[in-house]
């Protein structure tokens, strides 16, 4: 594997900071506690009943409104479901009460954050911190926020000593427009001052395992800002370079709104902004799924595509309807989680809170953590699918104007030929068990294809082919020199629920056969054999045996479950 392969060491992206686990799982909106989840999932817990009694029927409880006993119960609840990390915004749950007060750190909010992080530590939960408040939440753009939240946080002596850049906002109340925000020298001077103070804490806080520039860059007030794309990317680059000089050991990424790859095109931003990872956000109905091509499949497409330049990590994921049956929601999360891991991502974040799905995280940790995949390189598959033309088509926004309807814009891209070829390509690969990378460098692979020509690739010629019954789909990845092979088999029965294209499961025959790699020529040891562990993700059954390089397993004629196969040499 070439050293510049963006996925070569991406499983180790958070390993040094997460310590006992290399998988960042959970995410949610870390600034709130889901009272509904606690009530629904632990209805007989007397301590929870007592703690929630004072909050009435509130669905969400803001972190600053909850006492530390409720924090503790919430963290324990998350820990039992396999959650290892939360994503925290630089604000309270109140608009304008943000961490950057025009060059001064909001000390009461920072103190809240420190206490919250400390309370999570005994439960093995760490944090991804978003550094910069969204522009419209700051005093740089709003006189009302300056009056209500910024000025009251300054003492008289501080106000008397303000440098000119801060004085412009705090005392003179002269704000900027969104277009000016990204290149105004006074804004940048204040932001540098804010970052200096904040990073003095961040770099020594072990509870922070990663940073994010700002939430969903280029998407504010439910609007794409195409006219500000270049300015926004340049601003993001300045932030990253400034942070890296002061906190070089903490990974930093950027995120985009929840349209997957149908909003801002990820590869352009990954090339232009020197982040350590790219963080797509993906929601059902926004990602381009359709009949027979379900939301889980779209997650595989999005993660594979987004990983072509930088390591990718799903920062938000979810079903937009709370009415969907929990079983279908759980399968959607399961797909997102395993497709993320097998595309080289060190975990998955979801949104909104729905911790009953979190037992999927617990299962994944039990399977993956003993393998220590962060200490092995993901092995590049032999096939690279060239997305150079698709990326150019998806990056083009000229037809949509600066004030386009974002939902219409995403639908237009989803119906375009470039996206449809990527979708069909992903479906074909999963249905035939073909391992491949979307790539901008097809010459770096043993074999190459275009998205529209994948059907011409003979799966039996793969270095590690799997053969399995129709009605199932397979994705697999190897780590090390074929030391570990992880394969995910999902039972696919497409359904439409609440207008969303998801998948259910139905009984069907399942036989799985494989031809694992031959021992390299010249090696002195005998034939390779593998220890196979098969995990039934529906009922938690585990079977283990020693298998030959070429063998098979038969699950009978009424298999309903999803399975993970782990081969260890």
Question: What's the end-to-end separation, in Å?
Answer: 19 Å
Q: Please give the share of residues in helix.
A: 25-40%
* Uncertain spans: none
Please summarize the sheet with the most strands.
Answer: 7 strands, parallel
> What structural category characterises the helix and strand content?
alpha/beta
Shape: globular
- Number of helices in the DSSP assignment: 18
Estimated radius of gyration? 24 Å
Say how many strands there are: 24
For the biggest β-sheet, the strand order reads 8-7-6-5-4-1-11
Average per-residue pLDDT, rounded, comes to: 93
Protein architecture, described:
The chain contains 18 helices and 24 strands. Helix 13 packs parallel to helix 14 and helix 13 crosses helix 18. 32% of the residues lie in helices and 20% in strands. It starts with 14 loop residues before the first helix and ends with a strand. The longest helix is centred in the middle third of the chain and has 18 residues, at 185-202. The strands form 7 sheets. It has a 7-stranded parallel sheet. The mean pLDDT is 93. It is an alpha/beta fold and 569 residues long.
């Amino acid at each position: 594997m070439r050293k510049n392969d963006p996925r070569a060491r991406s499983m180790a992206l958070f390993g040094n900071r997460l310590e006992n686990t290399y998988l960042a799982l959970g995410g949610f909106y870390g600034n709130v506690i889901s009272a509904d989840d606690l009530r629904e999932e632990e209805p007989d817990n007397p301590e929870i009943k007592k703690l929630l009694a004072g909050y009435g029927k509130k669905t969400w409880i803001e972190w600053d409104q909850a006492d530390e006993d409720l924090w503790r119960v919430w963290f324990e609840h998350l820990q039992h479901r396999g959650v290892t990390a939360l994503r925290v915004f630089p604000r309270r749950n109140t608009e304008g009460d943000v961490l950057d007060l025009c060059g001064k750190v909001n000390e009461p909010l920072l103190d809240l954050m420190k206490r919250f992080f400390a309370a999570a530590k005994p439960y093995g939960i760490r944090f991804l911190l978003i550094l910069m408040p969204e522009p419209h939440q700051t005093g740089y753009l709003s006189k009302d926020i300056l009056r209500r939240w910024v000025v009251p946080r300054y003492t008289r002596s501080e106000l008397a000593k303000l440098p000119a850049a801060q004085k412009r906002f705090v005392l003179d109340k002269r704000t900027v427009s969104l277009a000016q925000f990204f290149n105004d020298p006074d804004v940048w001077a204040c932001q540098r001052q804010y970052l200096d103070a904040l990073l003095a804490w961040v770099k020594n806080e072990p509870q922070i395992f990663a940073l994010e520039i700002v939430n969903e860059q280029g998407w504010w007030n439910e609007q794409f800002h195409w006219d500000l794309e270049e300015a926004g990317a340049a601003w993001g680059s300045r932030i990253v370079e400034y942070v890296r000089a002061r906190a070089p050991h903490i990974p930093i990424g950027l995120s985009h709104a929840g349209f997957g790859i149908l909003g801002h095109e990820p590869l352009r931003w990954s090339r232009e902004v020197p982040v350590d990872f790219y963080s797509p956000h993906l929601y059902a109905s926004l990602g381009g799924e359709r009949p027979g091509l379900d939301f889980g499949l779209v997650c595989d497409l999005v993660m594979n595509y987004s990983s072509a330049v930088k390591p990718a990590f799903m920062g938000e994921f979810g079903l937009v309807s709370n009415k969907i049956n929990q079983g279908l929601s759980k399968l959607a999360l399961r797909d997102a989680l395993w497709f993320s891991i097998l595309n080289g991502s060190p975990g998955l974040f979801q949104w909104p809170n729905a911790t009953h799905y979190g037992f999927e995280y617990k299962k994944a940790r039990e399977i993956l953590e003993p393998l220590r995949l962060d200490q092995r390189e993901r092995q590049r598959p032999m096939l690279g699918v060239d997305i150079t033309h698709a990326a150019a088509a998806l990056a083009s926004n000229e037809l949509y104007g600066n004030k386009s309807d974002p939902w219409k814009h995403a639908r237009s891209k989803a119906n375009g030929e470039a996206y449809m070829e990527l979708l069909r390509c992903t479906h074909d690969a999963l249905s035939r068990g073909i391992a491949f990378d979307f790539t901008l460098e097809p010459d770096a692979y043993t074999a190459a294809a275009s998205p529209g020509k994948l059907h011409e690739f003979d799966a039996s010629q793969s270095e590690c082919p799997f053969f399995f019954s129709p009605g199932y789909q397979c994705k697999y990845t190897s780590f090390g020199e074929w030391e570990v092979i992880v394969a995910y088999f999902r039972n696919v029965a497409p359904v439409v629920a609440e207008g969303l294209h998801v998948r259910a499961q139905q009984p069907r025959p399942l036989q799985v056969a494989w031809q694992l790699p031959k021992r390299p020529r010249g090696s002195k040891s005998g034939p390779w054999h593998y220890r196979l562990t098969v995990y039934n993700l529906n009922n938690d059954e585990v079977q283990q045996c020693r298998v030959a390089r070429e063998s098979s397993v038969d699950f009978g004629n009424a298999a309903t479950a999803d399975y993970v196969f782990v081969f260890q040499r």
